[in-house]
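so ive been stuck on this for like two days lol. basically i have the seq below and the ligand is flavin-adenine dinucleotide, smiles is in there too. i just want the complex predicted, nothing fancy, no docking runs or whatever. if the output looks off dont worry ill sanity check it later, just need somthing to start from for the group meeting slides
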Amino acid sequence: MPGADAVILGAGPSGLAAAYELTRHGASVRVLERLEQVGGLARTIQHDGCRFDIGPHRFFTRNEEVHQLFVEVVAEDLLRVARLTRIHYRNKLFNYPLSPVNALFGVGPASAVLMFLSYARARLRHRLAPRPQHTFEEWMIDHFGARLYETFFKTYTEKVWGISCDRIGADWAAQRIKGLSLGVALKHALLSPKKHTVKTLVDEFLFPRHGAGMFYEKLADLVEVRGGTILLGRRVVGLRRDGMRIRSVVAQGPDGQEEEVEAAQVLSSMPLIAMVEMLEPPPPEAVLAACRRLRYRGHLGVHLKVRGLPFPDNWIYVHSREVRMARVANYRNFSPQMADGEGTSPLTVEYFAFEGDDFWKRADEELIEVAADELRQMGFVHPRDVLSGFVVRSQQAYPVIELGYHEHIAIIKAWLDRLTNLQPIGRSGMFKYNNQDHAIATGLLAARNVLGLGRYDPWLVNIDAEYHEGGEAR
Ligand SMILES: Cc1cc2nc3c(=O)[nH]c(=O)nc-3n(C[C@H](O)[C@H](O)[C@H](O)COP(=O)(O)OP(=O)(O)OC[C@H]3O[C@@H](n4cnc5c(N)ncnc54)[C@H](O)[C@@H]3O)c2cc1C
């Protein structure tokens, strides 16, 4: 099949942003998307009259261009949502950020004092005898003290990543956790709240009326209006190359038939490892070996339509060890149109697992029961108020930032850089912990490379951004 100026693998945020930019400049694009809908990990699914995102998605960016794009495309459907997020720990809810009174009553004065002393000790040691910080754990203890870290960060982080915190690289903490601010807030609350007002926690965020995915549905419409082609239900299964140039992309349609699309330029947002392993002929063994050393953490969203309004928060981080869930969101508190009326709430209970492990393999009905039971234990929902549910498994949701992963990526990237017409983009596509705005930025930059509008390096996007929770309020 004849191709287009660019063949784009995946219709998530990065792929659609690239398609948007290319079609805006008159280039032809063909987007191949394995699912039957656009939006990728930021898509919105309709079920039983309600709308559910894969997990709670807040749009926030420091990139003015990406912000403008979002605002212009979502247009009249944009809501400004007051943020309420709390932390569930030992059956108590902690404000986020913590207020001094809430913190003291929450952990109790004795624990609060011990936390402060442990924090003070860590900072003093940092000044007098600084130690190298290779791991997430070392970084956290150095910045917050052992007690704060063990009480509030360790369990949640290990729930999400599924590996011990001493196997997660310090760079992840340095980039991402700086502003994730139970620690910062508690530290500030316990020190001098007036002097250290937490400016980094965003009180409001933007949200499309019908869910995070609405932005991408609108973006896809614009791409098609400008002549771009978005093919849904097309799973890319092969990338054929002549030397260091991709000749064609092979995609399998809904009927199982394979079609080969000629490729002038390829932008790939499908998971990096799968993409590299699909190359025909394969890359050198060292590149494949580097791929085998990397892994993704899977995300299980148990989506429940429940009666009533179980909590007023947008989402709650669940640090408590007693339950397996990591977070629970209520989309009705994002936008009333996410629910099917006043009397119900669409919730997502989030779990993390590695693809193929026991939890991952549990039947959907069983997972719905686990989630309903945990919500009961936490006092949020009685099982009889769970009206319906479904489960979405995202295999490659979180690239695992395990110690040493940089070296493997460097090997893969060095070889991919030699391909003359392929650019990886996006989150799974570049094996980076990117948020929507970063993913969009990589797509825009890669498109400009194709258009000859400059020479950009999408790998540099987000290289030293802070954790998403921690930007200045716009
Ligand atoms: C639970 C959760 C919560 C999040 N919360 C936030 C948040 O609050 N704010 C925020 O900004 N970001 C958030 N993110 C991150 C955000 O979802 C991602 O940054 C963004 O979706 C990445 O876009 P992408 O285009 O790089 O990749 P994806 O969204 O993964 O899109 C890739 C696309 O490629 C398709 N694909 C994969 N394999 C193939 C194949 N073989 N053939 C064809 N197509 C294929 C996929 O189906 C998908 O549509 C969250 C992510 C998760 C999982």
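DSSP finds 16 helices and 20 strands in the chain. Confidence is low (pLDDT under 50) at residues 192-201, 464-474.
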